[in-house]
Amino acid sequence: MINQWTQSPTKLKKLLYLSMFIALAIVLNFIEPPIFAFIPGPKLGLANLSTVLVLVIFSPYDAVVVTFFRTIIGALIKGTLHPIPFFTSFLGATIASIVMAVTYKIAKNIFSLAGISTIGGITNNIIQFFVVLYITKNNAFWYYLPILIVLGGVSGWVIGVIAQLIYNRTRWKNKE
Q1: What is the pTM of this model?
Q2: pLDDT digit of tens for each residue in the chain (176 aa)?
Q3: Which residues, in sequence order, are CB contacts of 128 under 8 Å at separation 6+?
Q4: What is the distance between the alpha carbons of residues 74 and 141, in angstroms, rounded to a whole number?
């Protein structure tokens, strides 16, 4: 497997960039504070910035791979392998990145990067909600779903706008 990546300089360069995006996402996840102190859980999702950038710079597949590895490595480093934090983070982020990848692949001419990221933010929060509901078996959480959908949409939109601004100012945009 390593040989296939190191046989050509372009494959090695891509592997290094993807590794950089994984590392960036892990650091962003560590330094990110909660958005609202009075609402448990919601964060802006700065780590998703790397996923959105990889989506547009490399490919939808690469975005899913980056998300997959950043959630697992981040959980190992943080020590959050307890089922609730791990599965909410892993499943929410991974499924959201798959949804964003599919949306980007079939509708990138319809949705802006902010729109695709908004879809990802909403998906992430819905998946996390159902993971917590499944694990805790506590139906009292249903009141929280509309709040999570709104916050996921807003944070996804903000991340998408930031990603678009970064992308517009990088050399990758000129390679299209």
Answers
A1: 0.86
A2: 455 545 566 788 889 999 999 999 999 988 877 665 556 666 778 999 999 999 999 999 999 999 999 999 999 988 877 878 888 889 999 999 999 999 999 999 999 999 999 999 999 999 999 998 898 888 888 888 998 899 999 999 999 999 999 999 887 765 54
A3: 41, 88, 89, 91, 92, 148
A4: 26
Cα–Cα distance for residue pair 128/48, rounded to 1 Å: 15
Domain coordinates in residue numbering, the chain = 53-171
Q: Which residues contact 44 (CB under 8 A, 6 or more apart)?
A: 32, 35, 155, 158, 159
Considering Cα of 6, then 11, then 13, then 19, what sign does the dihedral take? negative
